[in-house]
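2024-03-11 09:14:02 DEBUG pipeline.ingest accepted 1 chain
2024-03-11 09:14:02 DEBUG pipeline.ingest length=250
2024-03-11 09:14:03 DEBUG pipeline.predict start
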Amino acid sequence: VDLSVSSVSFTGNAASQGAGIASFGLLDVDRSVFHANDADEGGAIWTSASGVASIRNVTFDSNTSTGSGSAAVFGAAATLNNVTASQNIADSDFDDSGDGAIDIRASVTIANSIIARNVDLSLGGSALLNPDCVSGGGAFDSAGHNLIGNLGNVCVLGNAQASDQTGNPAQPINPLLQPFALYGGTVEVFLPTAASPAVERGSPAPTGSAGACEETDARGVPRPQAARCDIGAAELDDLIFIDGFDPALP
């Protein structure tokens, strides 16, 4: 069964695999959010070995898994563009059986995306483990302009580009994101701060071309808002008077 969704919030679901979506066919997700879902593996999304996926302008926040893939398990080829995954927790039952926000079991092409500040509670959350991603038989295939906070010791970023920013257990990268909130949209996002290393670090290619940012962000804000688009699901824009107040950027 194939599934295509846009502008949907998946919140507070529970399952053994893929509490938001478990897919056995073609999956297309755009401008959506997965928040506070819990599963044994694939806290938000789980795809089978035949479940090819395209994930765009999607935010993963506070999802949990007792095993691996607190945000997602990709069992087949997948493409991620302008995705943000942060504050997701793997091995949430502390039994040392899981790793990583993203569990990569096939080739996953990734571009213009933030995977950072996730948590792996194995061995008490040791910084030497793998909070952001784990290569469970597959690997990321970089199309450039990604920010991965901590590659850990079992996550592979194949075809790494000079435009990629990657941290490690000794020196993780903080993406400097604002709190998870609506920011004038209909789905929550992590808006980057003005000082974020994600700001204006996305692809300079025109939207619609290979490796480029999506034309709008998860809220529908056009990209780019400055010289270049931002990495992740949300584009930093002028927020003055949205929802009747100025949220005071740092």
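2024-03-11 09:14:41 DEBUG pipeline.report The mean pLDDT is 92.
2024-03-11 09:14:41 DEBUG pipeline.predict end
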